[in-house]
Design a protein that fits this description.
Two copies of one chain form a homodimer. By secondary structure, chain A is of the alpha+beta class. Among the domains of chain A are: about 60 residues, Orthogonal Bundle (Arc Repressor Mutant, subunit A); about 70 residues, Ferrous iron transport protein A (FeoA) (SH3 type barrels, Roll), CATH 2.30.30.90. In chain A, about 40% of the residues lie in helices and about 15% in strands. Chain A has eight helices and seven strands. In chain A, strands 6-5-4-3-7 form a five-stranded antiparallel sheet. Chain A has a two-stranded antiparallel sheet with strand order 1-2. The N and C termini of chain A lie far apart (about 35 Å). The relative contact order of chain A is 0.10. Chains A and B meet through helix 5 and helix 6 of A and helix 5 and helix 6 of B. Chain A binds a DNA duplex through helix 3.
Chain lengths: ~220, ~220
DNA sequence: TTATAAAATTAGGTTTGCCTAATTTTATAA
DNA sequence: TTATAAAATTAGGCAAACCTAATTTTATAA
């Protein structure tokens, strides 16, 4: 059984491994993701290596072993299921659920995820558009194309968000963007790749390139 | 904000303070309740005293301060609400819910207990018959009379259980005793205070005095 | 190639929450 | 009252998971 902290590391490593850019997962990348000091990450890399949950190679960085991957996916599964619960049953807002789920995901009990999944009606995606892993670890592919990859003139459906911070979600709320919202790219500014978009055929709005990179489309 | 461990101490002290026997809450009683070493309890008594959550007097033992009481009740509230959730929504068995709720009770987020309470339809009692504290900290009185206090020939309704261990609950399950079950005391054995009872007018069964002390009646 | 910057690691330290063993205090019974 | 048992406390230690500061390794750019 893994500790709370080990689980957070596994989850962070898993998240980084799912990134489309496929960069090497370095000590500093993990430190950054968790808001910890790189020296602490070195400690934990040693620990998780001893537990055979990850493999570490100075050149290639960190990689989850099959068991590490399995453990990580179970945490992600619980996280996403709890998010559905919090939004649908307890009626929390989009921007509130992530932090609560960060705590709930660590609750360990035989069957808990399975029963929760059943109670929620076997949802496929969480409220941020991320696929929910099944009990056997299988999950639908994550959306990977971002609005920043879209073409000028193209119209896209918001399928998921990459950033789940409450700052970003509050901003989306302000712009009235949700999963399923249709966004048309009117223009891209050459200077800084800002996007001029129309939300659900509304009037033109300008958003940054960083914004565009965090909206995933289908 | 209190740590996981501090919360467990507060809860244990609260539970001991609710005991009908009104014994002094000693270092060793707390150690026993938590399965910790008395030396560890001494450490924590110091810490909680510094935080002004308890008062400690060698002679009188430990007592919760108003703030400590408030904090403890909020944990108990969450524990009992989650137990209702686990039983009613996730369909866990009576004897399984306590352990899961021990973890869930520590989840902290603004409003969480209130939303859960609303979602569950404002239950008054948890599945073990213990009253669920309201948001303001008020709660119905716990049942305190036990079957062991009953009279021979008397018939009583099971209102709550004192012991919530899975061993006890599994035993109750085997005897088909639930909240609401009617129990008649047929005879009390003078030697060791064992009870001969009839469950829902079924055939006579013998139970120990310890058993009788853990069934609360109304 | 070499200077510099960035990343990784080591060394040593802190806090939390436990522990054991030894000692002191308090209660109980002969 | 005094011996003994029980309870409480102190002293010292340990593991987990962090940290800072210093150092070493690796990458990057002039």
């Amino acid at each position: 059984m893994n500790t709370f902290s080990e689980e957070n590391y596994l989850k962070a490593i898993f998240r980084l491994s799912q990134m489309p850019d496929n960069k090497k997962i370095s000590t500093s990348a993990i430190a950054e993701a968790l808001g910890n000091n790189p020296a602490s990450v070195v400690d934990m890399i040693r620990k998780l290596t001893d537990k055979q949950l990850i493999e570490y190679d100075k050149k290639k960085g960190v990689k989850l072993t099959p068991q590490g991957q399995k453990d990580a996916i179970q945490i992600v599964r619980k996280h996403r299921l709890w998010e559905v619960f919090l939004l649908e049953k307890l009626e929390y807002r989009w921007d509130e659920i992530h932090d609560i789920a960060e705590e709930l995901e660590h609750i360990k009990y035989h069957d808990l995820a399975d029963r929760l999944e059943k109670f929620l009606g076997f949802p496929e995606y969480d409220p941020h558009g991320d696929p929910i892993p099944k009990a056997n670890g299988k999950m639908a592919k994550s959306f990977s194309a971002s609005l920043a990859d879209g073409k000028v003139g193209g119209s896209y459906r918001v399928a998921a968000v990459r950033d789940t911070s409450s700052e970003f979600l509050k901003y989306l709320h302000k712009l009235q963007i949700n999963i399923g919202t249709q966004i048309k790219i009117i223009e891209q500014i050459a200077f800084d790749h800002s996007l001029i978009i129309s939300i659900d055929n509304g009037e033109a709005t300008t958003v940054s390139s960083k914004f565009g990179e965090n909206i995933l489309i289908s």
